[in-house]
Amino acid sequence: MSTLQSLVPASARPRLTAILTGWLGPSAALLARNGELIAGAPTPPRNDSCPVNFELEEIGRIYAPGCKPETLVQAAAMMELLLDAWARYQMAAELQEAVVEADYSELMARNAELAASEARYKTLSEQLEQRVREQVAQIEAAQRQLYQAEKLASVGRLAAGVAHEINNPIGFIKSNLTTGKDYVGRIGKLVSVVRQKDMQTLSILWQKLDMDFLLEDFSAMIDESIDGAERIARIVADLKAFSNVDRAEEEVADINENLRTVARIVSGQLAAGQRLDLDLQPLPPTLCLPAYLNQVFLNMLTNARQAIAGHGDGFIRISSRQVGKEVLIQIIDNGCGMNADTQSHIFEPFFTTRPQGQGTGLGLSAARDIIQAHGGQIEVDSVPGRGATFTIRLPGGR
């Protein structure tokens, strides 16, 4: 049951007192059912009153001595309207407060759920990042292993070709030394005759040993052996220039010199009747990784050499020139060529057109990655049966 005390808040009572006394006189008062003064005169008289009802029950009375009865009735009716409005307001406020409290509780619950979800997401994100880092590390390690495998395969192919090149001069140098040893023995036979100063015997022995031919042939053998030794020295120098594949420092280099070095290495591996031509135009000094470019050129020239295998008139042409700010290098052959499908896959790891066991399928993939690491591009244009053209574009004058 509602009481007048609960319906009229303390904060509103001074104003209600002013209204009552101003309307009904200074002695007017509003008392609760238990006699408690709610508003008006502190000691109101106990006569001339009118009940104040709320929800059909009397909850208080208005006292106003000397006031007309109809005025008291009007004042009581007005008070009842005020109390009803105040009760409705209070009910709405409490309902609003309850709704706000419920909304706040729901909001806090959702916020807690979001916080928990965010925490789970953060944990999952961190776990995912860790897994990505681990996967990237594994991929990089695998890629390094693949490049190492290709490098070793390149070195193996290079060693096989170079061994053949070195064996040729070594073979005739060894033969010349064997013959030279025999010639020295013949010359030794003349020494004792010369010491005896027996010119007749010396002349007979000179003719018998065919010394005129021996001296002429000996000189030719020495010249041939010197040429062979110089050829071996050039091969070793080219290998030394090529071999520093693990050097990671950038250097300012003449790319034409790199092309010449690799061309000399590969040219010795061509079959009879095949040729390797150079058309190298002046290039600006270029900041690069020369040893890695050597590996690119070797891989591509090896592919070109394999493409012209079986072609008695096969040729490979290497050209270089500066186009604007780019260095343009082309490696052209008149070999077997490739169809469009093969061209679309040749830069993929492990793709090879060689018989199983004769190629790693990493040469051109590694070449592409090295060229891209230099900020360049590598392209291919080929027609089956008419050869292929590989074009390398590098930033010039870096």
Short description, anyone?
Helices cover 59% and strands 16% of the residues.
Structure in words:
The protein has 398 residues and is α+β, with helices and mostly antiparallel strands. The chain has three domains: 4-101, no CATH class; 142-243; 248-398, Heat Shock Protein 90. The chain is built from nine helices and eleven strands. Strands 6-8-9-11-10 form a five-stranded mixed beta sheet, with helices on one face. Strand 1 (29-32) and strand 2 form a beta hairpin. Helix 3 (69-196) runs antiparallel to helix 5 (211-243), helix 6 (255-267) packs parallel to helix 7 (290-307) and helix 7 (290-307) packs antiparallel against helix 9. The longest helix has 128 residues, at 69-196. The model has no long low-confidence stretch (mean pLDDT 82).
